[in-house]
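subagent[fold] <- orchestrator: predict structure for attached chain, return tokens only, no commentary.
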Amino acid sequence: MFKRLPEFYEEPDVGYSVYRLHFNENLFLPEEYYREILGGLESWEARYYTQPNNSSLAAKIEDHMGLPRGSVVITAGADDGLRLAIQLLHFAEERRLVVLEPTYSMPRILAEQLGIERVQLSYRPDLGVDVDEVARRAKGGAVYVCSPNNPTGHLVKELEELASRLEGLVIYDAAYAEFAGLWKPELYEYGNVVEARTFSKAWGLAGLRVGYLVARGPLASALKALAYPHPISSYSAKAVERALDLEKYVRRSVDEARAVRDEVAGRLLTDKYVGEANFITLKLEDAEAVAAELYKRGFAVRALGGRPLCESCLRFTVAPMDIMEKFLVALSEALKLK
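subagent[fold] -> orchestrator:
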């Protein structure tokens, strides 16, 4: 029936009985934050469809972030936003997506699923970007850039240069931007940038599946034309609107995560990537074996490999220090046994 099935994004199902250090969720937000935002719905909110494109939430985000009207497109998490941005390439001069590796795997999977040619380029050993090469290969198509990058955590300092020079689209994945102090989208002003944001990471609402794209003028209109009319539920939209009024909790948790990240990084002797996100990535000889040993000790982490600059890596989310103390003991044991 099918000549060939596309590759799929396989996620580990580890349940909730272990320490979840594999998805980079924000583990520092207090229960008080969730009690204030996770109230119930009125019956009519459950009975009826949401506003088209969740327009009230989009307007709330625009006001909160100081963005122009019509620049925000609500999506079912950032992955749905990346799908929309990559799907735009069917209407571009070239159906080509340049991906800088090592990085998040979903754009590679989405490109294959959507029938878009993918060109893999690598960050330099110093994590810099060859802007000339990217501009040449992405001309008429697009480049995907995650900053802070997953799994290296570094800020891509050439991002604005790419936006100003590229004859095509820049798909900017800003999932971890708040951890780097980048709270408000700005690059959309270039006009060829689609910035993908999410409430799953710093805002601690991964289970609600809410993201948004920021783009300017015609680009925003094109994204809305491809988007589903009711991308998220009334419950999710209402909770996120409340969360925006409680940003103080999120900022405090980000400060705590950064402090613990730096302390833990300072105690690790293994070669590593630290960067500006809420995770640390270790370069190991056998990351899969170490990850398996850690899981036996109650810690789910992410083993990554087969990529430029990350042939065998292990990434773990930063958690409150009492959990990190236990993790460091387990990691030391796992490294001895691997």
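orchestrator: received. Logging for downstream: The chain has two domains: 19-30+248-337, 33-244. Residues 19-30+248-337 form a domain with the Aspartate Aminotransferase, domain 1 fold (CATH 3.90.1150.10).
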